[in-house]
Amino acid sequence: MLLTVSKRLEFSAARRLHADSWSDAENLAAFGPETKARQGSGRNYVAHFVFTGPVNPATGMLINISEIKERAGKIVRERFDHKFLNKDNPSFCDILPTAENIARQLHLDVAPLFSDVDATLAACHVAESSERSATFYADGAGEANYWFDFSAARKTVSPHLNKEENARLFGRATSIHGHNYRARLTFRMGRLDPKAPLVRHDAIDACLRTLHDELDHRYLNEDVIGLKDRPITTESLARYVYERVKATMPLHRVRLHERDDFFAEIWGDESVFLGMRMSFNAAHRLHAVALSDAENSKLYGKCNNPLGHGHRYLTETTVGGEYDKRSGTLRDFVAFRKAIAESLAPWQDRHLDLETDDFRNAPSTGENIVRALWPKIDNRLNQQLVRLRLWETPNNRFTLRRA
Questions:
Q1: Which residues pair with 2 in a beta bridge?
Q2: Which candidate, 47, 215, 302, 307, has a CA 20 to 30 Å from the CA of 395?
Q3: What is the Cα–Cα distance from 294 to 24, expressed in whole angstroms?
Q4: How many Å apart are CA 325 and CA 342, to the nearest integer?
Q5: How far apart are CA 134 and CA 47, in angstroms?
């Protein structure tokens, strides 16, 4: 199992995407209209610093998140926040501050600061808008993410099933209804080249325009020729988007949300995944029995409040398995949701340390909560859980993956 801890930090900055050695036409093709902003353009950035490593059994922590905030935050404040990156940050004198290069530079700047701990900075993720983000990994790989939205109507049915089978499997969703879809396209490079854009603007812009024109405000069962003989499910639609993009661009994976809390993913090896988000409310206190009161107070700070505190925790469960081409499904939606709800129910509106058995002998850190939740959900999903995420707050995320 692979456990990661992620800390979210924000900063604002200006930048210009324009290579002096290229013509205006070349810059426009590579970076789009933004390249015309001669004095720079601005973004409100969100950075995620993702660490991996062993969990200290005494403290229940992989890394002290406060340390990430302090050390990484200092770098962000001094080198990135409220800067014109091309001029104020020497790292961007020779390379342009694209989202991929900002993620790369944050990793290069922050990783050495944690040489004194067992945790390792595995990745830096940077979002520059709701449509554009990038990730840089410790092994040198880079990813570019592009989101687009469309609204469409559908009947959730498969042409390969009879009427009774469709009704039994999809219920009320066999009636005409609609969704505001949100899709993410991820492009990956095994070794990021900081001198060239991972994806050219002209290519992705044409791709997204074509997809939007084809899918937006359509009745998917009848208006989209490519979907005529396919099941109209979220899994099948995500696969269709993947195939359409892959035909012209080196796409790595697609995620398609039909609602904020439910999505399907298709990867390059044709793997299919379903994800669902669900929250629960609980109280807890961070306190390690192996430490003194003074040590607990110093380590956990205000989270060591003797009276406790609480969170509205958010979980994201992602499952794999065998995709059924006949029905166009990976897993029954209702059964999927029920399995998660039943797993969370014993913790709902409880004090995790005082009213459950899971944290009698272990601190209720995010690391320990996600590790305790994994078998509860996995056992209800036939051991097909591949990733489990837990947000303690919007800024603190804990993720467990099947290795």
A1: 401
A2: 307
A3: 62
A4: 28
A5: 10
Task: Give tens-digit pLDDT for 247-276.
Answer: 999 999 999 999 999 999 999 888 999 999
Digit-coded pLDDT (tens) for 73-87: 999 999 999 999 999
For the stretch 266-273, contacts whose Cβ atoms lie closer than 8 Å and that sit 24 or more positions apart, written own/partner, are 266/235, 266/238, 266/239, 266/241, 266/242, 271/320, 272/235, 272/238, 272/239, 272/320, 272/321, 272/323, 272/330, 273/318, 273/319, 273/320, 273/330, 273/386
d(CA 288, CA 202) in angstroms, rounded, equals 55
| Model pTM score | 0.94
Given phi > 0 = left and psi -120 to 50 = alpha, else beta, which region is 50?
beta
What token pair was written down for 400? 């467990």
CA 171/CA 149 separation, integer angstroms:
26
Q: How far apart are CA 61 and CA 364, in angstroms?
A: 10
Residue 21 corresponds to which amino acid?
S
How distant, in Å, are the alpha carbons of 3, 158, 225, 338, 389 from that of 386? 12, 26, 34, 18, 10
The pLDDT of residue 270 is 84
Secondary structure string (H, E, C) spanning the chain: CEEEEEEEEEEEEEECCCCCCCCHHHHHHHHCHHHHCCCCEEEEEEEEEEEECCCCCCCCCCCCHHHHHHHHHHHHHHHHCCEEHHHHCHHHCCCCCCHHHHHHHHHHHHHHHHCCCCCEEEEEEEEEECCEEEEEECCCCEEEEEEEEEEEEECCCCCCCCHHHHHHHHHHHHCCEEEEEEEEEEEEECCCCCCCCCCCHHHHHHHHHHHHHHHCCEEHHHHCHHHCCCCCCHHHHHHHHHHHHHCCCCEEEEEEEEECCEEEEEECCCCEEEEEEEEEEEEECCCCCCCCHHHHHHHHHHHHCCCCEEEEEEEEEEECCCCECCCCECCCHHHHHHHHHHHHHHHCCEEHHHHCCCCCCCCCCHHHHHHHHHHHHHHHCCCCEEEEEEEEECCEEEEEECC
Report the length, in residues, of the chain: 403
Q: What angle do CA 33, 39, 43 make, to 5 degrees?
A: 65
Give pLDDT tens digits for 26-64.
999 999 999 999 999 999 999 999 999 999 999 999 999
